[in-house]
Amino acid sequence: MFQALLAIDLGVRLIGLAWKLRMLILIIVAARLVVGYLGLGGLGAAPSGPGITYSRSQLSEALQVAGVPGDLAPIGAAVALAESGGRSDAVCDSCVPGVREYSVGPWQINLYAHPDVTASCAMELYCAARAAASISRQGRDWSAWSTYDSGAFGAFIAP
Question: Does the predicted TM-score (pTM) go above 0.85?
Fold first, then answer.
């Protein structure tokens, strides 16, 4: 009888531990999602802000955190490299004659065409990646970028 009670007690304790472990895993997963969504760091926690030049892998990773599939993210990274060299502080203020444009950040997001995107967002890696993901329909259509339409992005596709 005593052994049966010990076995029941042990079983109850193990079930309790299993639930605590599940809750801990859920909290960790939720925290990673929030961190990625808010742009507080991604899988590799790339530095972010003005004056930074991002690598192909950092740009691609940020797009993936923003929801662009892994097979399409390298195209978006190549677009950013062709547009700005991956520079967070790149600005094009009416730099094309006859075109009303104020494009900012690694993806050179035209703030006139996308008034919901701020200049500070366009310069911050994860926020800019979310905007680029939205504009490109989660990486399925990069035609909003002239370097995609012209094919210039192709020089930046990884071999």
Answer: no
